[in-house]
Amino acid sequence: MNYIDLRSDTVTMPTDEMREAIANALVGDDVYCDDPTVNKLEKLAAEKTGKEAALIVPSGTFGNQLALFTHTRRGQEVIVGKNNHIVIHEVGASAVIAGVQLRTIDTVNGTMNPAEVKKAIRQDDIHEPETGLICVEEAHGCGAVVSLENLKEIKKIAQENSIPVHLDGARIFNAATSLNVEVKEIAECADTVMFCLSKGLAAPAGSMLAGSKKFIDRARKNRKLMGGGMRQIGILAAAGIIALEKMTLRLEEDHKNAKYFAEELSKIPGVNVKFDRTDIDMIYFEMGEEVISEKAFIEKLYEKNIKVNGIEDGEYRFVTHVGVTKSDIDFVIKCMKEIM
């Protein structure tokens, strides 16, 4: 059965071209660095981000935690926005894997105040942990894009204090599309960057971690330690190459659909759309229980072959992607009006 799936842009299916590439991929053993398709993907990822080298990893969470593990020493502290993915959606992995603690600071739609970042850097005090890393997120999971000026200011502060910066760029191609800049302009604001191939780009799995050659060499060994040596992974890398070369070029369509979706949702009585966070492919909105219960909303849409997630932090989230057309959006709006 075909569903309109609005839960996330991770639900996309690989394209026919990807499936063919997967079937015909040249492969080797990537732990020995002799998978030609992986090597091609890693080179492409490094070029796209303007970094010396890149490494394929199983997921975005794996890539972020590998970065923390490689950048820091146990007992150090990482400065990060309190509602960043690393904090709220990665199962406390930083404490388990890297053995670091997170120093979270407030954000406004994902943007950290550089003055607060500077203030959060620990001094040379016997009682305090050492600041080992600063993490930023672009585009942010709240649906907003952080300005380049903000990212550059945080990078400047980090350099002045000899602290590396890691960018959780799970949706960095969405951010670049929204800002109308090349991905490498955003990645330049950090020492390392992680981005996902399976969020909006239709690859079935996989993420990339990019940085200096020295860093990636260390990360490759740490990836093995974490169980991420995946052998004949060229079958996934083949889809990843198409994701980077072709699927990144169509993200503007998802953004336009999201803006259209937001406008149509806002016309429904009782729906409060968060228009200050519609920079990419996400629409956040509030809808009280007096309009329709969360349980009834999810179940009645599912009956019409529409999949949505429940409320998180008081809000619903719909996400557009290659599997959601403008006519799908019109159908969802029609169904919402009927059930409400």
TrEMBL record:
Transmembrane regions listed in the UniProt entry: none
Keyword Lyase: yes
Domain Aromatic amino acid beta-eliminating lyase/threonine aldolase: 5-285
Any one GO molecular-function label of the UniProt entry: threonine aldolase activity
Record's keyword annotation contains Cell wall biogenesis/degradation: no
Enzyme Commission (EC) number: 4.1.2.5
Keywords, ordered alphabetically: Lyase, Pyridoxal phosphate
UniProt-listed Pfam families: Beta_elim_lyase (PF01212)
Cofactors, names only: pyridoxal 5'-phosphate
Family: Belongs to the threonine aldolase family.
Name of this protein: Threonine aldolase
Organism listed in the record: Sedimentibacter acidaminivorans
